[in-house]
Amino acid sequence: MTTKFALIVDDEADIRELLEITLGRMDIHTTSAENIAAAKTLVAESNFDFCLTDMKLPDGSGIDLVQFISDQKPEMPVAMITAHGNMESAVEALKAGAFDFVSKPVNLVLLRNLVDKALNLKSIETSQIVTQQLFGNTEPVQLLRKQIRKLARSRAPVYISGESGTGKELVARLIHSQGPHANAPFIPVNCGAIPGDLMESEFFGHKKGSFTGATSDKEGLFQAANGGTLFLDEVADLPLDMQVKLLRGIQEKAIRPVGTQTEITVDVRILSATHKNLAQEVENNSFRQDLYYRINVIELNVPSLRDRVEDLPILIEELLRRITAEYQTEPLTLNPEAMAALTSYHFPGNIRELENILERAFTLCENDIITPADLNLATVTETEPLHTNQPQPVITTAINSTDSGIQTNAQDNLPDAVNLPGEVNSLESYLENIEKNAIVKALEATRWNKTAAAKSLGITFRALRYRLKKLNLD
């Protein structure tokens, strides 16, 4: 095993000794410095795998050393030792480029985990997963790849902003997979999908008997993500009372399950995202300012599809490859008119909408060639680029339902209420049941001859295969 070398910077001899002993037991060779000047000299003269520095030093702030190392030795991770409860200093260090921080009195378990992750960081040059999964060659995508690689080498909380459908969860997964905790859990959670009365239990877990329905001990999301990443999607949907509890868990790196009196130490990196303007939510008093600053140490914006329209051919090729591989069909192509239609489209739903458009076209096209008619693109009244905080445009053309053949218009007056049968709880499930029953009857009538069943239903064989998979009938 290759010997690792660490630089410890602290003006207190007893703390230096404690850190040297702790790292020595991890088979790490250590060198110490009492101030910034001595540390800079050592960094310039030697090659270290890791640096651990105090915030307050006799000749200045540890932030200066973090910035120096970030400029001179960007591959070398630096962790900061901060005073207990001084989150402002910790945030400042992370913004300056620190890998992570640990508070005094130093929790040796957290310290060992921190050092282990720092020493397992991947080289920026050898990180290939981002390129393989984030398709495109435009300048915004290249910048995004570069930022992902850099952020993967930090434990700083990252707020991922961008419109719906741009791929914010993919970006979060790439940050996780490129970091030192790639083999640890990545736990995504949609904050808007958790019922309010169960939110604390979901995040922090609970003890058996702590409330009605708690029939057994339950591990929370923080514990499930311990050692890895907790991705808070649609974080703006968190209620204010839960924001307070989440803030404490992030600051103290400890959580208290419902029904217990003791805290559990957790080592979790927080990544968050929302399609809303979080700064505006703070101004509207619907999101706590202190939590905003904790999760938004670094903001990463994911560009809209309109900002990278030159990437469309690459994205289309990859999405069609995935669709045909999933349904095991012949490769699909777009005719020039269909490609032109997609290129001129505004994509308010971004890449997610593009994927849905292509999957729908896959079921409608003939002879494995997609035409503009198969795309069924909606026309929008305004042609200016859409932004997250602007009102959504009015769709004026009719949108065809390919499943039912019914034509509706987005501006039609809808009834105030629809009485659905008691066994279903949504229009979507009601229509799905109708479709499923029609397909099963057609298959039974043709003795499960799919080609004949598709013909009797008036749809293509490919469209039938798509529906069978979608409805779990295959």
Can you characterise this structure?
This protein is of the alpha/beta class and 474 residues long. The protein has four domains: 4-119, Response regulator (Rossmann fold), CATH 3.40.50; 129-301, Rossmann fold, CATH 3.40.50.300; 306-412, Orthogonal Bundle (Helicase, Ruva Protein, domain 3), CATH 1.10.8; 424-474, Arc Repressor Mutant, subunit A (Orthogonal Bundle). Helices cover 42% and strands 14% of the residues. It is built from 20 helices and 18 strands. It has helices spanning 13-24, 36-45, 62-72, 87-96, 108-119, 129-133, 139-152, 168-177, 199-204, 221-224, 240-252, 278-283, 289-295, 312-327, 336-344, 350-364, 372-375, 427-445, 450-457, 461-470, and strands at 4-9, 28-33, 50-54, 56-57, 60-61, 78-82, 100-103, 158-161, 186-190, 229-233, 254-255, 264-265, 269-274, 298-301, 333-334, 369-370, 399-400, 407-408. Strand 6, helix 4 and strand 7 (100-103) form a beta-alpha-beta unit.
Question: What keywords describe this structure?
Answer:
474 residues, alpha/beta, Rossmann fold, Helicase, Ruva Protein, domain 3, five-stranded parallel β-sheet, 20 helices
Quick one: CATH superfamily of the largest domain? Answer: P-loop containing nucleotide triphosphate hydrolases
Strand content: 5-15%
Which CATH-level-2 architecture of the largest domain?
A: 3-Layer(aba) Sandwich
Write down how many β-strands occur, each being a DSSP E stretch of 2 or more residues.
Answer: 18
What's the CATH class label of the largest domain? Alpha Beta
Question: Major sheet: order of its strands?
Answer: 2-1-3-6-7
